[in-house]
Protein backbone atom coordinates (compact mmCIF):
# COMPACT_ATOMS: atom_id res chain seq x y z
CA UNK A 1 0.00 0.00 0.00
CA UNK A 2 1.42 3.36 -1.01
CA UNK A 3 1.75 6.18 1.47
CA UNK A 4 -0.80 8.26 -0.44
CA UNK A 5 -3.30 5.40 -0.47
CA UNK A 6 -2.83 4.97 3.30
CA UNK A 7 -3.69 8.63 3.90
CA UNK A 8 -6.83 8.34 1.76
CA UNK A 9 -7.96 5.30 3.76
CA UNK A 10 -7.32 7.16 7.02
CA UNK A 11 -9.32 10.21 5.78
CA UNK A 12 -12.16 7.93 4.71
CA UNK A 13 -12.25 6.25 8.13
CA UNK A 14 -12.27 9.60 9.94
CA UNK A 15 -15.11 10.84 7.69
CA UNK A 16 -17.07 7.64 8.30
CA UNK A 17 -16.56 8.02 12.06
CA UNK A 18 -17.75 11.66 11.98
CA UNK A 19 -20.86 10.76 9.96
CA UNK A 20 -21.76 7.77 12.14
CA UNK A 21 -20.92 9.06 15.63
CA UNK A 22 -24.16 10.06 17.42
CA UNK A 23 -24.57 13.62 18.65
CA UNK A 24 -27.41 15.74 20.06
CA UNK A 25 -29.86 17.45 17.71
CA UNK A 26 -33.00 19.54 17.97
CA UNK A 27 -35.31 17.59 15.65
CA UNK A 28 -38.52 19.15 14.30
CA UNK A 29 -40.70 16.42 12.76
CA UNK A 30 -44.06 16.70 11.07
CA UNK A 31 -46.58 14.15 12.33
CA UNK A 32 -48.90 12.76 9.65
CA UNK A 33 -52.43 11.39 10.10
CA UNK A 34 -51.30 7.81 9.54
CA UNK A 35 -48.89 8.11 12.46
CA UNK A 36 -45.70 8.57 10.45
CA UNK A 37 -43.20 11.27 11.42
CA UNK A 38 -41.13 13.11 8.81
CA UNK A 39 -38.04 15.02 9.94
CA UNK A 40 -38.45 18.55 8.58
CA UNK A 41 -35.69 20.52 10.34
CA UNK A 42 -32.67 19.41 12.33
CA UNK A 43 -30.37 21.80 14.20
CA UNK A 44 -27.40 21.28 16.49
CA UNK A 45 -28.96 20.60 19.88
CA UNK A 46 -26.64 20.23 22.84
CA UNK A 47 -27.90 20.96 26.36
CA UNK A 48 -28.24 24.72 26.78
CA UNK A 49 -29.27 25.30 23.14
CA UNK A 50 -32.04 27.88 22.89
CA UNK A 51 -34.65 28.56 20.23
CA UNK A 52 -37.89 30.52 20.16
CA UNK A 53 -41.33 30.27 18.63
CA UNK A 54 -43.37 33.32 17.69
CA UNK A 55 -47.01 33.26 16.70
CA UNK A 56 -50.09 35.42 16.75
CA UNK A 57 -52.44 34.48 19.58
CA UNK A 58 -55.70 33.08 18.14
CA UNK A 59 -57.98 35.11 20.45
CA UNK A 60 -55.99 38.23 21.36
CA UNK A 61 -54.54 38.60 17.81
CA UNK A 62 -51.26 39.84 19.31
CA UNK A 63 -47.83 38.28 18.95
CA UNK A 64 -46.51 35.87 21.55
CA UNK A 65 -42.89 34.70 21.80
CA UNK A 66 -41.68 31.80 23.90
CA UNK A 67 -38.03 30.87 24.34
CA UNK A 68 -37.11 27.24 24.92
CA UNK A 69 -33.94 25.54 26.13
CA UNK A 70 -32.76 21.97 25.60
CA UNK A 71 -31.87 20.40 28.93
CA UNK A 72 -31.03 16.79 29.87
CA UNK A 73 -32.73 15.32 26.80
CA UNK A 74 -35.88 17.42 27.19
CA UNK A 75 -37.28 20.84 26.37
CA UNK A 76 -38.10 23.60 28.87
CA UNK A 77 -39.85 26.91 28.28
CA UNK A 78 -37.61 29.51 29.94
CA UNK A 79 -39.14 32.83 28.83
CA UNK A 80 -42.51 34.05 27.61
CA UNK A 81 -43.31 37.43 26.07
CA UNK A 82 -46.68 38.71 24.98
CA UNK A 83 -48.39 42.03 24.23
CA UNK A 84 -51.65 41.80 26.19
CA UNK A 85 -53.15 39.88 29.08
CA UNK A 86 -56.17 37.81 28.10
CA UNK A 87 -57.34 34.33 27.24
CA UNK A 88 -54.65 31.66 27.59
CA UNK A 89 -52.13 33.78 29.48
CA UNK A 90 -50.42 31.58 32.06
CA UNK A 91 -50.44 32.33 35.76
CA UNK A 92 -46.93 31.34 36.75
CA UNK A 93 -46.97 32.80 40.23
CA UNK A 94 -43.83 34.72 39.22
CA UNK A 95 -43.62 38.46 38.84
CA UNK A 96 -43.81 39.83 35.31
CA UNK A 97 -42.38 43.07 33.98
CA UNK A 98 -43.14 45.41 31.11
CA UNK A 99 -40.28 45.73 28.60
CA UNK A 100 -40.69 47.88 25.46
CA UNK A 101 -44.41 47.12 25.28
CA UNK A 102 -44.04 43.41 25.99
CA UNK A 103 -45.09 41.63 29.18
CA UNK A 104 -42.10 39.43 30.06
CA UNK A 105 -42.02 36.32 32.25
CA UNK A 106 -38.47 35.06 32.86
CA UNK A 107 -36.90 32.09 34.62
CA UNK A 108 -39.85 29.76 33.96
CA UNK A 109 -37.94 26.44 33.52
CA UNK A 110 -41.12 24.46 32.91
CA UNK A 111 -40.83 21.14 31.05
CA UNK A 112 -42.80 20.98 27.80
CA UNK A 113 -41.50 17.63 26.63
CA UNK A 114 -42.94 16.20 24.46
CA UNK A 115 -43.53 19.47 22.63
CA UNK A 116 -46.26 19.42 19.98
CA UNK A 117 -47.23 22.52 17.99
CA UNK A 118 -49.90 22.88 15.32
CA UNK A 119 -48.44 25.66 13.19
CA UNK A 120 -51.64 27.04 11.71
CA UNK A 121 -50.94 29.52 8.92
CA UNK A 122 -53.42 32.09 10.28
CA UNK A 123 -51.34 32.29 13.47
CA UNK A 124 -48.08 32.90 11.55
CA UNK A 125 -45.83 30.45 13.41
CA UNK A 126 -42.12 31.22 13.09
CA UNK A 127 -39.11 29.59 14.69
CA UNK A 128 -35.86 31.40 15.50
CA UNK A 129 -32.67 29.42 15.83
CA UNK A 130 -29.10 30.68 15.66
CA UNK A 131 -30.03 34.12 14.33
CA UNK A 132 -32.23 32.74 11.54
CA UNK A 133 -36.02 32.56 11.36
CA UNK A 134 -38.11 29.86 9.70
CA UNK A 135 -41.75 30.13 8.67
CA UNK A 136 -43.26 26.92 10.05
CA UNK A 137 -46.56 27.50 8.25
CA UNK A 138 -44.63 27.15 4.95
CA UNK A 139 -44.54 23.40 5.64
CA UNK A 140 -48.27 23.10 4.86
CA UNK A 141 -51.72 24.39 5.84
CA UNK A 142 -51.49 23.41 9.53
CA UNK A 143 -48.63 20.99 10.16
CA UNK A 144 -48.53 19.19 13.51
CA UNK A 145 -44.90 19.52 14.59
CA UNK A 146 -43.03 17.54 17.22
CA UNK A 147 -39.94 19.18 18.76
CA UNK A 148 -37.50 16.85 20.47
CA UNK A 149 -33.87 16.59 21.48
CA UNK A 150 -32.48 13.38 19.97
CA UNK A 151 -29.08 11.75 19.87
CA UNK A 152 -28.51 10.49 16.31
CA UNK A 153 -25.62 10.06 13.87
CA UNK A 154 -25.36 12.92 11.31
CA UNK A 155 -25.82 10.50 8.41
CA UNK A 156 -29.44 9.84 9.56
CA UNK A 157 -30.42 13.52 9.71
CA UNK A 158 -28.48 14.94 6.75
CA UNK A 159 -31.52 15.79 4.58
CA UNK A 160 -33.40 17.63 7.33
CA UNK A 161 -30.16 19.24 8.50
CA UNK A 162 -29.48 20.75 5.08
CA UNK A 163 -33.11 21.51 4.04
CA UNK A 164 -33.58 24.96 5.64
CA UNK A 165 -30.21 26.24 4.43
CA UNK A 166 -30.70 24.82 0.93
CA UNK A 167 -34.05 26.63 0.63
CA UNK A 168 -32.44 29.88 1.79
CA UNK A 169 -29.72 29.60 -0.88
CA UNK A 170 -31.83 28.41 -3.81
CA UNK A 171 -35.21 30.06 -3.30
CA UNK A 172 -34.47 33.28 -1.48
CA UNK A 173 -35.04 34.40 2.09
CA UNK A 174 -38.81 34.96 1.82
CA UNK A 175 -39.69 31.74 -0.01
CA UNK A 176 -40.03 28.29 1.52
CA UNK A 177 -39.22 28.04 5.19
CA UNK A 178 -37.68 31.35 6.21
CA UNK A 179 -38.64 34.86 7.24
CA UNK A 180 -36.42 37.78 8.17
CA UNK A 181 -35.20 38.20 11.72
CA UNK A 182 -36.98 41.58 11.89
CA UNK A 183 -40.28 39.84 11.27
CA UNK A 184 -39.53 37.40 14.08
CA UNK A 185 -38.47 39.83 16.79
CA UNK A 186 -39.02 43.54 17.21
CA UNK A 187 -36.08 45.51 18.53
CA UNK A 188 -35.65 44.58 22.19
CA UNK A 189 -38.86 42.52 22.00
List the helices and strands and how they pair.
Layout: H1 3-20, E1 23-31, E2 37-44, E3 50-56, E4 63-71, E5 74-82, E6 97-99, E7 102-105, E8 110-111, E9 115-118, E10 126-129, E11 132-135, E12 144-152, H2 154-171, H3 181-184
Antiparallel strand pairs: 1-2, 1-12, 3-4, 3-10, 4-5, 5-7, 5-8, 6-7, 9-12, 10-11
Your description of this structure?
The longest helix is centred in the first third of the chain and has 18 residues, at 3-20. The chain is elongated and about 75 Å long. β10 and β11 form a beta hairpin. Strands 3, 4, 5, 6, 7, 8, 10 and 11 form an eight-stranded antiparallel β-sheet that branches. Strands 2-1-12-9 form a four-stranded antiparallel β-sheet. It has helices spanning 3-20, 154-171, 181-184, and strands spanning 23-31, 37-44, 50-56, 63-71, 74-82, 97-99, 102-105, 110-111, 115-118, 126-129, 132-135, 144-152. The chain is built from three helices and twelve strands, in the order αββββββββββββαα. The chain has 189 residues and is of the alpha+beta class. The model is unreliable at 173-189 (pLDDT under 50).
Amino acid sequence: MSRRHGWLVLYALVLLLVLCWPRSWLVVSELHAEGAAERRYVFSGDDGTRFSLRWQHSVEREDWIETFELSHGGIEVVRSRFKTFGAGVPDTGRPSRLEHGWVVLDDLHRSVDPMLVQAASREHYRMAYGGHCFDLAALGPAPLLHFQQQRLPPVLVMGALLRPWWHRMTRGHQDVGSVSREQHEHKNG
